[in-house]
Amino acid sequence: MASTNLCLLSQNTTKILNFSLPKLTPPIPKPNFLSVTSFPSSFPRFLWSKVATFKSSKRLSCRSASTIPVSTKDYEFSDGSSEVELRLQLNVDVQNSRDIFVDSNDTSLTIRVQRNGYLITLIETNNLFGKIKPAETIWYIDDDQLVINLKKQDPDLKWPDIVESWESLTMASTQLLQGTSIYIVGDSTEINQKVAGELAVGLGYTPLSTKELLETYTKQNIDSWVLTEGSDSVAEAEGAILESLSSHVRAVVATLGGQQGAARRADKWQHLYAGFTVWLSHTEATDEDSAKEEARRQMQDARLGYSNADVVVKLQGWDTDHTKSVAQASLSALKQLVLSDKKLPGTHLAI
Q: Where is the CS domain (predicted)?
């Protein structure tokens, strides 16, 4: 079953929608090392979480993230393989251990302290970096620190931090991706390039653009090429570029959008299977059900090359200020994909 991530992006809100999608067998077989198990015909349960945009700063902040900003967080974190330890500085006077409330679930953690009849939230997140075993959560007070031990469900997954964020995802990329290249596909060449560039900077990968490579080689821009020779000619040339890039590692490749793009054509995907593919797809959907239905139709359309992508990020509108949030949604989706099928490249989680 293919794990898919949808990011619904609008002026005021962004929603990251996580669910699994059935996939049809691609017209060109994938290499064995990239094979995915068979998919059921039924459409699985749809899971989602919200991300809010703050108009004043135009920055995206996960509403489920820690209430302590990353830049000013007042805690220490360590990963001990089978468990993680969080040491939280108690900046309030705790008279009794019964004044501390620790609540945990598979992917959430809430810590509150009661003081003068009021509950003070020290940390609250439902976006832990990985899943835990909540029944085995242990906490105690050590001098002026609250120590919380969380047992990991997957001891092979190294946690860079307590919460999933852009910083922790990029730090974990070495163990998750193992140098596997990423291909960004979708109908907007400009968006593909911007998101690919953001990912490359965060991951320490080489940013590559098939548009720039084609224009450098042919000494003409893509638009004039399409006018003079047609979109088929451009798609063929991009296919040759993708073939030459298929042996590259540690690269983020932005592909051409539109009809002239090779990735839009189902018969041009042979060399895109050399790495992970992220489809940046525009949508008018504003709710869970309509987004799920749209994704189902698209991923079952074998004529559309994009339906072969490993993960999907849905965009409702576009603003360059959101580039990093889309890049983060892409990494989060790839992380889920890797953890769901450890036979994929980049899934040997060596500690």
A: 70-163
